[in-house]
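Hi team,

Filling in the usual template for the complex we talked about on Friday. All components are listed, including any nucleic acid strands or ligand strings, so the model treats them as one assembly.

SUBMITTER: L.P.
PURPOSE: interface mapping
COMPONENTS: two
RESIDUES: 905
SEQUENCES:
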Amino acid sequence: MTDVLDENLDDANVFAGNEDAVDGDGHGTDDHGHGGGHHSSLGLSNMKLAMWLFLGSECLLFGALISTYLLSRARFIQELLAGNPNVTSTMPDFLVEEFQEAGSVQPLFDIPFTSASSFILLMSSLTMVLAHKAVHEADYRNSKIWLSATALLGSVFIAGQVYEFTAFYREGLTYTGNLFGSAFYTLTGFHGVHVTGGIIMLMSLLVLAFRGKLNQDRAETVELVGLYWHFVDIIWVLIFTIVYLIP
Amino acid sequence: MAITERPLALPSGDVVEPSRPMGILARPRNAANWLTTVDHKKIGIMYGAASLFFLLIGGLAALLIRIQLAVPNNSFLSADAYNQVFTMHGTVMVFLVVMPMGAAFANFLMPLQVGARDVAFPRINAFSFWVFFFGGLMLNTSWFLGGGADGGWFNYAPNNGIAFSPSNGIDYWNMGLLIAGIGSLTGAVNLITTVLNMRAPGMTLMKMPVFVWMTLVTQFLLLFAIPVLTVAQILLASDRIFGGNFFNTQQGADPLLWQHLFWVFGHPEVYLMILPAFGIVSEVIPTFARKPIFGYPFMVFSGIAIGFMGWGVWAHHMFVSGIGPLSVTAFSVATMFIAVPTGVKILNWLATMWGGKLTLNTAMLFSIGLVTQFTVGGLSGVSHAIAPSDTQQTDTYYIVAHFHYVLFGGALFGFMAGFYFWWPKAFGYKMSEKIGLWNFWLMVLGFNLTFGPMHILGLQGMPRRMQTYDPAMGFNFWNMVSSIGSFILAVGTLVVLYNAIVSSIKWKKAGRPDVGPDPWDGRTIEWSIQSPAPEHNFDVDPAVESLDDFWHRKYQPDEDGKLRRVHTGEEIAQPGNGEGVHLPAPSYWPIVLAGSLPLIGYGLIYNLWLAVPGGIIMMMSLYGWALEPADDLDVDDHHGDHDQDPDTDHGEPVLETV
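RESULT (copied from the run log):
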């Protein structure tokens, strides 16, 4: 592992996760001829370790949100079936009847539509991998293509979510109306915010790429954004299964 | 960190020009400025100073409580004011005093103990401090903007809803702690990375000082506990600000959700407050008993065990919430089990002192104070694990006695030991032992007078959080004793500030005599550098061969196998020559970015338009931060530094990205 090279990676990494790094010379190895190749105790760059830790923390964030959603939806259905007027008055009658008939919130969802947008998001993980591979191999033309593709696919997913929210709102499910509305929009909205953050990072990388600054030695930056992007995708697989597929 | 301009050799023989650093904005030049510093030692000191500042606020609130309760039917505070005072007392003490005091030691000490130049991400470190500090300030502005939070520090739903608490106090509680929590999270990522990745050569995990281990466990607890609290706060903000329904019982919501989320965070929180103090006394006691810590692996693994088991005991805060007999039994048993690793620690400290040549100075006395008083608090804690007993005690002063014995008698006494012990390393002079003894004995007396009687009051049935009581209830005598004790305790605690100032003045008058790198004949490598610690920490990477490495370099066995001193600390200490060392440069962006968050917080409370400038500043500072060159100030001077042949300098350079 070379100190010099990694320093430059560290310098480059500022974009990915807004960070700086002292490792390399932070230990003062080459200033004092200590040598020995001591660089990082685990042999993993600080940035990557930090990203994994951050994603571990994010797991608990989404874990708590998903638990909240499951509890809230169960409570909502229970009250709805019991005919609690505080709950039934928050939605138009046809939606109440549909929910009561099905005994779940499934009638609200357009599964084919959301499946399509989920597929699009999952495919963006593939293009992300290709983008990283391209930068790693100094294939700067393809790196721009794949970064753009990833950002575009992510944006299509977000557009789908905006459309979906609008449609649900028009059907009568509001954020302030009842427990299910609050929980659904909060959970999926939080995920949407995470995807949007990822798109912003990808766009920032693209700007670097077009200015010729996204060189091979910054491949780790792309990899870090990729880690975040894949994590957000995996979370969506969970959310899609729990929210949309399991009644 | 120097930027290397020379081409790098790749395995294939190709040559790649390293990318230019992306800097477009200037970095501050003045490394001594506290506002822009990224030096972990300065940040640690700022954490300490800020926590002492908040300690004054929290302590003042505590005294108001004790004045109100000194006599029955007192009307010193109204019921409403009393609610605010005890809520803010708890919140400030937990989030803005004990937690940052642990962070102060972790920041100042941990990099020194692992032999690192700084933490892994110095600018994020500065950001963590500022965001904690601004969050704490924002929380406390509520005193002047419509009153503080009044729902207790645990802030149970649905009591925390608009219907029951219409003032903005709970919104401030919510936003202030949400913002401070961001600092804890970034700090946790940073410090874990530092411990795991930046250890000195030879320092394997099982050669790390116990304090470093406890810091690691603490930061992992923070890493996973903070997001759960964040979710609870987001749900509360949604309900209070945007009209959500998460705790709206009329819509069928389950208010127990708050309790579960809060205590899933809250119980690890308890351990992450006490573990740094455990780490501190695990350094102090061996030094002054002149023996290695007894059962080092047990100390480490019991700390890790506490870290794991701390996640499985949260519902013992909820035995009377109607969670069902099965849950109660499970959590009751788990809570009894978690006393085991804690007991292991107590035993090991005692065994370390056993047969040692004890030096009973202030730092050691405070450590013994922790061991003793924490044991009392731990025992009353075990009595809460027994659910029927807890049903009787819950919401009485018995609980108040318990957690003050572990948090004040435990954690804060440990931090005091740490202040006295590492003061010379931070500031270059020792605090006066004479005043220190006053400090200790006044605090022990005041502490036990204040909180000892609360055991009795609690068992008599005096409820917590009530602003007064009837004279016929028989609570009069012990409440008066407790109130008198609280003033002794307040004076005793202030003595540490007095001591710091007086000792500093004396030291300056005496012409700043050098206290020496190793004033206590210490064991760990932070004593192998000059005092106060030079800005660059270590001149060269310390090579670590064993646990208590510095001690083993000073003392070695002679031919009879007896330990003899072969060096003094002064002889083998590093001279403090930082020539040629690159340090991370200071930066404006951490404080600017941190400053933008309370603006957004105020915006969410009052008017979303107010959040817009906050959001703009935030985005600008994120990009400013990212575009700031990450190298040091004198990068231009060092272009010639790396003129050796790359192959001999760095071995075979490999472009290593997965």
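MY TAKE: The CA atoms of residues 87 and 152 of chain B lie 4 Å apart. Residues 578-642 of chain B form a domain with the Helix Hairpins fold (CATH 1.10.287.70).

Thanks, L.
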